[in-house]
């Protein structure tokens, strides 16, 4: 920090107050003689505030863009405050007159006036959002008003007020009195509490509050839960608090007599103005700066007779001081968390809405940004291709070192039990130090590889020892008072409590490839060798260093002390006594940044105030005005970053915020070469040798075809390729060819092509473009020259590869088509999902080509089984075709292919996969597998088993019915397949009614033949599966009966419930008779209800307690209702007696037909009624009958849900049915004879 400008205010009166508008850049200052001025610096509006600050920091003159004197006060102006939200200025004088000023057309005008006519205004502040203003008078009066001029409330406090401050949320007000006390009131003027002043404990004597400032957090916080409230007393004591009731305040003794305190824009720096009195009684005015944690950062001496006001600029880069009748501007250089490595700028900043630090990794060449959120970042360092983040851990005393690459991905991390106040990173070492302990982490080098090789050669025991040695070698710690005692972190932690602190703490460190330097407050610098950390030397400085930096060869050390003075130490000098090296006399003041050149040990770039200097040895070059931070120095160019600009919008850095500055030697060499004076340039480069200068001279000589000079220059810069180029050019007799080769060297390829065209050597141009990989121009040149087809096909293939590498498959397919590259066409079609194109390629390719197998695999990957199988078969790989079917679950096709190609493993795969599904309890997936493989009996058996299990688990009846229906359909499918196979026709056959009757007669004439065929085909399993329709019927009638009961059709429900007695082998008898008793009760068929209760009481499967409950329930019912039915039901007759009476006088065939009719045909599946003479319809799938009138227009079978014929409403009458049955019987009799 340094004074950058001083503005004199006309008149002899002293300034009494100063305030800076943080948003618009206006500066208001008031003083004696009713002085009130509003100033605006040139370029201090909106986004140009930062540019003005940079110009001021660079030492340039900052002109006043506006200087307006405001008239209205009649006495000294003692207070001025801005309302940035509403762009208003409020001022007050000693007479108590308050004026509110507003901006109109670029000028400030008086808007409101208030005069209490008694008391002096001691302080006034706006809320952070600008809605309210609080005015405090010396007699204890307080007035709070709104921004529109209305008075909200007023109050008389019993104290003599001196200062006030709003809380960040505007809910509380702090009032400070002349007795040095601070009280908290709410926003309505009610007393809340008295703020404890821990810093003043033990002090005896009068004191008063001279400064109070509460940071509102609008720019985020440096770290979570950091102090934001500063209270300062005139005795020099100050405390920093997190809130007004914080009992863990940071107490500071400033050592001065303070006058005012002020936080900067983001609450990271607190400025305290005041004075010290020397022994001679002279007052020395200064500004001290503290961090948010209370750590003293710097002291700034201020000339003059007193500092009457301080204020920060909105960007925090400048501090304005009201000194006598002048305004001093002090430029500030913030210690940002940043580093630069591998063309990547990494910096950390905070956001108001988040507690973590946002760490941005910005590629300064690619302009790519990667934001990472890390908690409590304390240090950032970088070297080589890595950067190091130091953070605070969650546990107390825990800190973490994180290595990251250029995109912010963590590479490695270590947890250390010490607070790293100083961090440095080299290509191989990460170094952290507290005030007394140094930690060295060797994260990458060849030493670890040698240890691993030694362990491998020494066997198991040697490997363990090597691993232990490697662990201990990678992390080492030592106490600065005992540097020879190196310990691993685990061992050092046990001894840390015994070592304690150091009387001479560490204050800076730096490291080189093989050297580590640690500086202490006394000026002693310890030198250690790397990687062994053996003490090598000690050096003595004549100052307390704040920053150290080694040059590229480790021979010189640059030192910046706490006063900003730069000095140098020659580490190679012999020194005196035990101290080595020589602290040189050359010094420079106000230095805040430096950077050694990475390729020249004599070159150093430094930032002094607002200028950048380049030192060659101790001689400076002409300075360049700049406020940028130095990021690197190589090839006579200084790489700088405008971090102040970046931090204004850290989320969106711009490429123009990075700049390169050339050194004087590079600029002079360019100027000499541009003037054409090559001899002078050569002499200058010889006097100031550098690889970059020789390279520049060689390039200039090449352009002019001065081959001798170019060769000499290439030799000096050790450019072997350049020397070979010069020799190759010397062998070319044609000057035009030489110029073309030079153009190629300088990457001016279009100029080289033009030269070849003028020479009529398009072949050379084609060769050039081919070497460059510019195949588009190669194609154009070949078409111009009519070149050979092979070269053109190669160009097309290369262009297709260009597009395919960039995922532009459609373009690539065009060029591969021209080149007839079928292999790449397959890839393009696959990426474009053009599967019809792949199928067409399959048709074009001849049998046996290997590409067919690739096409098949790609079609298989997207589920196109048929096309994939065709490709595999055409390729001659039947096994791959079968595997494709198996993988895509096309088991029917897989079995057909296996049978056709004699592949016996397909059946085993089917059973294996089915077993796998069954083990996983995926029964329905196994059923689907069996269905696709046309294993109908296995599917039906699995469905029946599943239905039985669900019935035992009391699952939903509808789900169980569906499973039985599916099982029955599978049985029917098996029957059709078996009968079709026996008949020699594998397809479904449709014939006339007479054909159907003849087949029926044949089956009846040979009743055992069909059964034997089916039984043999099913392997004996059909006998158990033939009852699937019976199970479906049972649950169908069960659901139907419940539906009828719920619809209020109790009689119909009773009929259906009586049918359920036939299915007691499927349904639970207890459920059947319980339901029958229920519907009998609701339909008033008490006799039927009674019989059902009798059956329930007799069932052995029902527990005794439940049977007794049934008996009690029956007793309560039949006491009130006699067990009698209103009439008899045909469904209620005994089935066996009816069947025996009906079949007594008939033959075997007639009895069978009657039984079939009684069991199936005579029950309507739509209503549960008996089908007699009513028109009826039969389902072609389940072959169950239903009364046409009961269908009610439905188009599907109530049992199996198959679609009914459209003429379902025209059911056959009984006469038609008897005619058909008679005809069938006659045909059967004739067939039997």
Chain-wise SSE layout:
Blueprint: E1 2-8, E2 15-20, E3 26-31, E4 35-41, H1 49-57, E5 64-69, E6 77-83, E7 88-93, E8 97-104, E9 107-115, E10 121-126, E11 132-137, E12 141-146, E13 151-156, E14 161-166, E15 172-177, E16 182-186, E17 191-194, E18 209-214, E19 229-233, E20 237-241, E21 250-253, E22 257-263, E23 269-277, E24 283-291, E25 296-302, E26 307-312, E27 318-323, E28 326-331, E29 337-341, E30 344-350, E31 357-363, E32 369-374, E33 377-383, E34 386-392, E35 399-404, E36 410-416, E37 422-425, E38 429-433, E39 437-442, H2 446-457, H3 459-474, E40 475-479, E41 482-487, H4 489-499, E42 506-511, E43 515-520, E44 524-529, E45 535-540, E46 545-550, E47 556-561, E48 566-570, E49 582-588, E50 591-596, E51 603-608, E52 611-616, E53 619-620, E54 624-625, E55 629-634, E56 637-641, H5 643-646, E57 658-662, H6 664-674, H7 678-687, H8 691-703, H9 707-716, H10 720-730, H11 735-745, H12 749-758, H13 762-772, H14 775-785, H15 789-805, H16 809-819, H17 822-832, H18 835-844, H19 850-861, H20 865-874, H21 878-887, H22 891-900, H23 905-919, ...
Antiparallel strand pairs: 1-28, 2-3, 3-4, 4-5, 6-7, 7-8, 8-9, 10-11, 11-12, 12-13, 14-15, 15-16, 16-17, 18-19, 19-20, 20-21, 22-23, 23-24, 24-25, 26-27, 27-28, 29-30, 30-31, 31-32, 33-34, 34-35, 35-36, 37-38, 38-39, 39-40, 40-41, 42-43, 43-44, 44-45, 46-47, 47-48, 48-49, 50-51, 51-52, 52-53, ...
Helix pairs in contact: 2-3, 6-7, 6-8, 7-8, 8-9, 9-10, 11-12, 12-13, 13-14, 14-15, 15-16, 16-17, 17-18, 17-19, 19-20, 20-21, 21-22, 22-23, 23-24, 24-25, 25-26, 26-28, 26-30, 27-28, 27-37, 30-31, 31-32, 32-33, 33-34
